[in-house]
Amino acid sequence: MRRQKGFPIVRAKANPARFSVTTKAIMPKLILLRHGQSQWNLENRFTGWWDVGLTDQGVAEAKAAGVLLKDRGVLPTVAFTSLQTRAIKTLNLALEEAGRLWIPVTKDWRLNERHYGGLTGLDKQETRERHGDEQVHIWRRSFDVPPPEMEPGSPFDLAADPRYAGIDIPRTESLKLTIERVLPYWKAAILPVLASGETVIISAHGNSLRALVKHLSGISDEDITGLEIPTGQPIIYDFDDKMVPGARYYLKDA
Ligand SMILES: O=C(O)[C@H](O)COP(=O)(O)O
């Protein structure tokens, strides 16, 4: 053992109190938080990977989520979010209210919203009038039908955005394709942290969170079409000591 000058060597003794803590069953908690209302949620435009800010209502929703975490004593110790401003801001506002701005935060594109392809920027109602309700519902909620691809050179093309340097930006994504990048990230980066006993918060998006919920709650490809994730409402999963998630619930109902 190397000894630093001026510091005596202290040999660790078995500490019964410490021992009882380390053998306590670890019951990890996962908090899923969809960003607060965004400017394009308000304007009813397809957003996907396009970066938009929060509305005043979105800011209030994010802060309320943080107050709820604090009031219920569900205090995150580690955070993950996407590379998108609306999720990052929501996380920061919620953590600030919860007194947890200091926890480690990892940002990764794999938690981004599903890419809305050629629909990005379009008005959802005008798109319904043009293509019909059924087609738009298929694009929005089907499991594996992606929207039309984004044309190269589109004003919403993010190829020059430095945050995506080195990333093969999708041209469009269905929920299935979104799952194909969210789940490997969940398994490799988030699950091990959760399994070590941390209380993890993921601040992300309607469809990247639907991808996770589908997996964690074992929802079928058919039934996932009916699942909506509300903005700014913390969803909780309690895991048992074998890392099996319990039923999900809204923190406000706990
Ligand atoms: O990207 C978007 O437009 C929204 O965040 C989610 O849209 P959706 O409700 O059409 O999936």
TrEMBL record:
Query: Subunit notes for this chain?
Result: Homodimer.
Where does the entry annotate site (Transition state stabilizer)?
205
Q: Which GO terms describe its biological process?
A: gluconeogenesis; glycolytic process
Q: Report the domain of life of the source organism.
A: Bacteria
* Annotated catalytic residues: 35 (tele-phosphohistidine intermediate), 113 (proton donor/acceptor)
Where does this protein act, in terms of pathway?
Carbohydrate degradation; glycolysis; pyruvate from D-glyceraldehyde 3-phosphate: step 3/5
Q: What is this protein called?
A: 2,3-bisphosphoglycerate-dependent phosphoglycerate mutase
Instruction: Relate the protein's function as given in its record.
Output: Catalyzes the interconversion of 2-phosphoglycerate and 3-phosphoglycerate.
Q: Which UniProt keywords apply?
A: Gluconeogenesis, Glycolysis, Isomerase
| Annotated residues for binding of substrate | 34-41, 47-48, 86, 113-116, 124, 140-141, 206-207
Q: What SMART domains does this protein map onto?
A: PGAM
This enzyme's EC code(s): 5.4.2.11
Provide the top EC class: isomerase
Quote the catalytic activity from the record.
(2R)-2-phosphoglycerate = (2R)-3-phosphoglycerate
